[in-house]
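step 4 of 6: structure.
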Amino acid sequence: MRRKLLIADDESGIRRLVRMTLAGEDFEILEAVNGEEALTLARAENPHLLLLDVKMPRRNGLDVCRVLKDDPATQNIPIVILTAQSQDADEAAGRAAGADFYFTKPFSPVALVRKVDEILLAAS
Amino acid sequence: MADAMTHSPGRRLPLAASLMTISIGVLVLAGATGIAIADTLAPRLVNIERNTTIALVLVGASLLLVQSTHDTRRRSAGRGIALLVAAAGMAGFVVDGWLAVPAACCFLALGTALLAVHSGRTAVRVSHVLVIGVLSFSLLVVAGSFYGTVVHFTDVGVHSALLFMVSGVGILWIRPGQGLMGPISAPGVGGALARRLLPIVVLFPFVTEWLRSRGEEAGLFGPELGLAIGTVALVSLLVCVIWIAARLLARGEAAVFSSMADGAMSLDPSGRIVSINKAMEALAGVGQAQVKGRPYFEAFRFVDKLGVSISSDDSIIERAIAQKDVVAGHGYDVAIESQDGRRTPVALSAAPVLGLEDELAGVIAVVRDVSIEEEIDELKSSLISTVSHELRTPLTMIQGFSELLRDRRLDPEDEREAIDQIATSSERLGRLVNDLLSIARLDSGRIDLHIAPHSIAALTDEAVDSFRHAAAPIRIMDLSDLPPVLVDRDKLIQVITNLVSNAIKYSPPGAPVTISGTHVEDYVAITVTDQGIGIDENEMSGLFQKFYRVDRDEVRDVSGTGLGLYIAKGLIEAQGGEMWVASQRGHGSSFTLSIPSSVLNLAEGGDHEKEVAYS
C-alpha cells in the first residue's frame, strides 16, 4: 500500500519542492494550501505523515497541529512542522502544540527525506 | 561655558564694573590736571591718590578686555594690561612712596586674578580667592568709614576701596559658572537661594549696626542694650536666612517631584508613603490622600509578567533601603496594577535619601511607564520574525531545488521547473532586499529625493513601457493637458509601476487597467483603476502597512513581499503628496496618488526640454 503524505503550505513552490523531493519514494502526496484544508484532508485521508507549515492563511499550522493532536482519530498522525520562523520561542510553541519534529526553512531535501523515513519507520 | 556666561544672571556686571572704574579713574586724573569740570565732578568728591588712580584705570581697562568671550586678541591685550597692574602692585613693595603696601597687595592680587581668570579650573579658583581677599580687605575699609572711623593700618582710602570692590565683583562675574562663583550663578534652587540671600547677609549687619550706633548717640539706649539689640537682630537675620533657604529648597524639591513625567513616590525609611506625584496618581489610579502614610506595597500592587504580586522582599525599593544605594530595574517584567485593574508595564528605580550622617532619611522611587518601549520591542520582534520568514521561504526554494539539481537525475521537465523556481526565488529575494532598504530609508527620513518639474504624461508612459508584454491591456487617458509635477522622476516611475503591477496581478487575465489623471488646484492626481478582485472593507486598514498581504484563496499564488504599497505611499508622502484607494470587493480598485504640480513652464530649458521631447 502506498503511504500517504500530506504537505500543507500556502507557498506553491514549497509544495512543489516537497513533491519533487519525495518523487522517488513510494508516496501518495496530498496538498493543502491553508490550515482549514489541512485539517479537512488530514481527517478525511488520515495520512501517514503531515508536513505542516506554520504561517498559513485561514488557520495557522500550530493551531492545526493542536486540533489534530487533541482528536483521538488523528492524534497518531506524525506531524513535522516546516517553518520559516526559527526563533527559540517558535520551536517551543511547535513542541507545545504536540508536533513530533520541527524543521526550519531553508532545509535540505536529502535531510527531509531522511527524516520522513525515520519517522515513518518509528511509527510502523 | 560661554553659554553659562551668556545666560547667567548679572552677565553685564563685568562691563558695568570696568566702565565705572575707568570713568571715575579718568575723571580723577583729569581733575588733578586742572580740567575744571572734571575737577568739580571728581577730585572734590572723590579722593584717590594719583598712582592708585592710574593703577585702577589699568584694572578697569584689563577687566573690559579680558571679559570678551570670543575675541582672543582682546583677551590677550587685557592680559597684557593685567600684567602691568600686577607689576604696579609689585612696584609698591620696592619703590618707596609709589603705593601704600596694602594697596600694592590689592593691585598684585587683582592683576594676578585678571591674568588667571581664563586659565584652567584651579587657576579660576585661585583668581576668585585672590579677589575675595581684596573684597574682604576693601569691605573692612568701607565698614570703618561707614561707622565714622578710619582704619589707619590699611592706608587705603574709602574711594579706592569702593573701586577695588566694584572691579573685584566684575572679575568674579567674568566666569560666573566656574570656580567659587559656580554655586551662586547656578540656575537651580541653590543659585537662586544664594543670589537672593547674599545681598541681605552683606547689607543687613551694616544697617543694624548703623542704627544701633545712631540709637546710642541719640540716647535711646545704652551700649549694653544696643549690643543686645544688635545680637537679636543678627539672630533674627540668621533665622530668616535659614527659613528662606528651607522654603526655597522645599519648593524646588516639590517642583522637581511634581513636574516629573514619570511616576514618583517619596517614602520614609520604613517604606511608608510621604508623597506621590501626579504621574504616579495616574499610573495607580489613586489620589495622594488615599495612600499617604501607608506602606507602599499595600498602597500599590506591583505584579510580574504572569500577574502575580511581587512581594515587598523582592522589591527594588527594599533593596535600595537595605543597601542604601541606587537600585534600578530593567523593566519589561514588572507592571503596576491600578485600582480598576489596568496594568501598565513599568521600570522601577529607587534611590535612598541620606541624612547628614549618612543615615537613611527616606527613599525616592521612580516608576517609569515603559508601555511604548514594550510596544516597540514587540513590533521589532514581529518585524524580525516576518522578515526572517520572507527571506527563508525563497531561500528554501533556492537551496532545495539546487540540491535536487545537483544530487538527483531529474527529468527535463522537472529540471526546467527547478531552474525556473530558483530564478523566481532569487528575484523575490532581490526585491525583498531592495524593499527593505527602501523602508529603512523611508522610516529614517533619509530618502534621497531629486525634486524637479516633470511631465506626468512622460513619466506614466515610461512606467507603463515595462508592461508592454503583459497580457492585460493598459489604457492611458490623455494626460497631456496636465501641468508638470514637482517630483523625483525615478521615485514616481517606481510608484506608478508598482500600482500598475498590482492592478495586473490582482485582476483576471486580460482585464484592462486604466490610468487617468486630473488637476485640482495645485495638485495633479493620477488614478490606476483595475477590474480585479477588489478590496474588502476589513482589508482596507492594513493595506498600506508593512508586510500586509490580502488573505484570500484567489490571491494565494500572487507573488509579493507585502511592502510595495507601504513604500509607494511613503515615497508619495515624502514628495508632499498623498495616496488613497477606493475599492469594493469583487468590483476592482482605484489607487490614486496626488502630487504637487509645478508652476514652471516645461519649455524653459534644461531637464524640461528632455521631458517635452519625451512627451
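step 5 of 6: annotate
 - The interface with chain A takes residues 385, 388-393, 395-401, 403-404, 407-408, 410, 414, 417-418, 421, 424-425, 551-553, 556-557 of chain B (CB under 8 Å).
 - Residues 171 and 369 of chain B are 48 Å apart (CA to CA).
step 6 of 6: archive
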